[in-house]
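Lab notebook, design round three. We kept the backbone fixed and only want residue identities now. Task for the bench partner: fill in a sequence for the structure below.
Input structure tokens:
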């Protein structure tokens, strides 16, 4: 039994020694710096010299365990010297090409992105519409990828210092106040006036935490003199801006015209129903170049006399708002609007004009905001105008009884009579001539809509 165990142990040691020597022979040129090719640590196993460490000639009784351990040690230690030398020689190139240049590019792009999108969400934009977090996360991954191949070689002290910097900056970013006079918060404001009822309101739109009462600080509007004796109505959600809240209160009457014209005379408008689904608008604002038409029922098409679309062509989708712009002051807008056939007969809406007077004394409510709000805020327009005056003229004028079918038949009759009567059209009485001219003018406007009105 004892001889069998010795035999198994010697066979195992022999196999281990042969394997180590075979692997050891694969590196004949690796050795100490002061040795020639094929030299090893102490010159053993060189050129067939297999004498033991004690100078005795090995025979069948010589133990193989000591030689196996020596061979394994020489095989492991000797190539390690070459690998370490190789790593030191390529260390600088690896850092330069795989770490330094990509990190500089990714970090520069991230700094530019953070500077550009720092107040995107505070300005009332949805995180899904403007992918702020997604863009920052993607660039963070690009910044970390070049470091991954050499991360295990970074000293533990450098890793600890980097983690400390990240932790400190994160705590500061979460606790420090985010706005300053150099990086102010944009506060949206607009004053609306209902010319029919005389209701005058000032709207302030900003972050909900700054518009509502908090334990730490009062709302922004609390420092305004006009809100001390007036009721203030606030909502945590604004219709105009995503993620922002709005507050409104009665304000001072603005002076947006060049004279002391009463607000009820700021807008001149008329609405005439000239078909089952067609109406003609005439809008003129005093001392303004911008007006709007709002409809509670979606509109299908619109045509402006002497005008064109800002983007080149009319959209095919239905819309509830028409924005009118002019290069001249006090311009009269003449607009034809058509509604779809299947949206009902009751159509309501309003006509409005915009003013954006930043001069001191023109809009007292805006002057009050700019004076009494904190220095880390800046006032901006909620819409195209700082003041919007509106009139509900659409509600009372779209029930006119003039029909498109009757006007077209009158137009065809008068046109044929004028062509066959040899100029007798000029002899018509004044009242009839005026009616004919009106019908002809309306017909020219409505040519594009004949096919879509089911006459």
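Proposed sequence:
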């Amino acid at each position: 039994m004892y001889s069998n165990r010795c035999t198994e142990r010697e066979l195992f040691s022999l196999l281990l020694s042969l394997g180590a020597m075979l692997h050891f022979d694969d590196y004949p040129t690796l050795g100490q710096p002061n040795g020639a090719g094929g030299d090893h640590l102490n010159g053993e196993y060189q050129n067939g010299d297999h004498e033991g460490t004690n100078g005795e000639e090995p025979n069948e009784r010589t133990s193989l365990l000591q030689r196996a351990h020596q061979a394994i040690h020489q095989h492991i230690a000797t190539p390690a010297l070459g690998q370490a030398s190789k790593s030191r020689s390529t260390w600088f190139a690896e850092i330069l090409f795989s770490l330094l240049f990509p990190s500089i590019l990714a970090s520069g792009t991230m700094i530019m992105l953070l500077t550009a999108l720092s107040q995107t969400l505070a300005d009332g934009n949805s995180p899904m519409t403007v992918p702020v977090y997604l863009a920052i996360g993607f660039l963070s991954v690009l910044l970390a990828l070049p470091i991954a191949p050499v991360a295990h070689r970074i000293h533990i002290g450098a890793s600890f210092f980097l983690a400390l910097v990240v932790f400190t900056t994160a705590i500061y970013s979460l606790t420090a106040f985010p706005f300053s006079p150099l990086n102010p918060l944009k506060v949206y404001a607009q004053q609306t006036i209902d010319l029919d009822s005389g209701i005058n309101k000032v709207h302030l739109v900003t972050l909900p935490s700054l518009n509502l009462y908090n334990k730490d600080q009062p709302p922004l509007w609390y420092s305004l003199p006009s809100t001390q004796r007036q009721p203030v109505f606030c909502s945590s959600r604004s219709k105009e801006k995503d993620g922002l809240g709005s507050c409104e209160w009665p304000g001072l009457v603005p002076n947006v015209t060049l004279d002391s014209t009463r607000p009820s005379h700021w807008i001149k408008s008329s609405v005439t129903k000239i078909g089952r689904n067609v109406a003609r608008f005439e809008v003129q604002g005093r001392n303004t170049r911008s007006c709007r038409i709002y409809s509670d029922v979606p509109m299908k098409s619109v045509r402006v006399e002497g005008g064109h679309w800002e983007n080149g062509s009319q959209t095919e989708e239905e819309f509830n708002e028409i924005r009118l712009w002019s290069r001249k002051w006090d311009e009269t807008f003449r607009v034809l609007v058509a509604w779809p056939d299947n949206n009902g007969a009751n159509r309501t809406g309003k006509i409005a004009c915009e003013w954006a007077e930043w001069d001191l004394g023109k809009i007292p409510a805006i002057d009050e905001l700019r004076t009494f709000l904190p220095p880390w805020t800046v006032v901006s327009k909620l819409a195209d105008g700082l003041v919007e005056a509106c009139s509900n003229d659409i509600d009372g004028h779209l029930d006119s009884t003039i029909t498109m079918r009757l006007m077209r038949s009158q137009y065809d009759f008068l046109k044929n009579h004028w062509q066959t009567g040899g100029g007798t059209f000029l002899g018509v009485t004044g009242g009839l001539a005026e009616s004919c001219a009106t019908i002809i003018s309306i017909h020219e406007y409505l040519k594009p809509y004949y096919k879509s009105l089911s006459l």
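Keep this in mind before ordering anything: The chain has nine helices and 13 strands.
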